Amino acid sequence: MAARKTAIDLMVNTDWLLKHLDDPDLVVVDCTWTLKDAARRGRELYLDRHLPGARFLDIEKVADTASPYATMLPTPEVFASAMGELGISRDTRVVVTADGYTSGRGWFLFRVMGHPWVRILQGGNDAWALKNYPLEAGEPPVVEPRSYIPAPETERVVALHEMKEIIATGSAAVVDARNTPRFTGEAGLSHGDLPGGHMPGAVNIPYGRFLDEHGGFVSPETAARIFAEHGVPESGSVVVTCGSGISALVPGLMLEQLGRDWRLYDGSWNEWVQQPDTPKVISRAEGGSK
């Protein structure tokens, strides 16, 4: 298992970033993303406003686009090509930001590909704007392509066959970060015409619980209390999941800060619900469990 970072290593604040924004080895990556049923998509929001020089990482394109399941992690080759086009090499220090909660997914993309130095801007674009720090609009900057060599950390990800065993044996706690109606089955999945529901034994902690009133991430101490309130053991392995592996990285990031042993089930409910042999729990209104 890869070494865990501490809380102080994972985030930078707006003042730090303003001071280092022009460092030649530092790149700001904006990974704003929204669900397909949102009024505006991530790229539109990026074009409206972004930090000076920020480069846009499209979560839906830097993915396994050949997969039938939404926003699955990209192959190392796809990631390397995308980072090269963004002018990023393994020597680049990367600060990830977003409008909203998706900086966790951006951070994880870099970490699972073994990037040595990646941090999250605490509070994201909103925190930057609240300080009245400079913003830009329009297309991303033209940059010189670079060579990127990934070093994938595959142990950070759970595959479908492993997830089946975890659910069958209870060998890890499972935290589902979706909003409660989708977890119970009262609402369907936003990715296509798929029913809601959850895996047997999963604990529902909506990702918004880990965000403060300004949209920043809560402290590790607060996160630990939230996990405890929902019955997540203080030790042992944890698997995070959601609809398609994006909001799951909010509790995942919290677990990373706490130094916990955790992994992402990347396929999440989008993959699980489409398997004929996986156990599923849905609300009574939808007909019970199967």
TrEMBL record:
Q: Where is the signal peptide?
A: none
The UniProt entry, under CDD domains, shows: TST_Repeat_1 (cd01448), TST_Repeat_2 (cd01449)
Which is one GO molecular function term here?
Answer: thiosulfate-cyanide sulfurtransferase activity
| UniProt keyword terms in alphabetical order | Repeat, Transferase
SUPFAM superfamilies, A to Z: Rhodanese/Cell cycle control phosphatase (SSF52821)
Coiled coil where?
none
Tell me which InterPro entries the record gives.
Answer: Rhodanese-like_dom, Rhodanese-like_dom_sf, Thiosulphate_STrfase_CS, TST/MPST-like
Q: Which residues form the Rhodanese domain?
A: 22-137, 168-281
The name this protein goes by in its record: Rhodanese-like protein
Species of the source: Chelativorans sp. (strain BNC1)
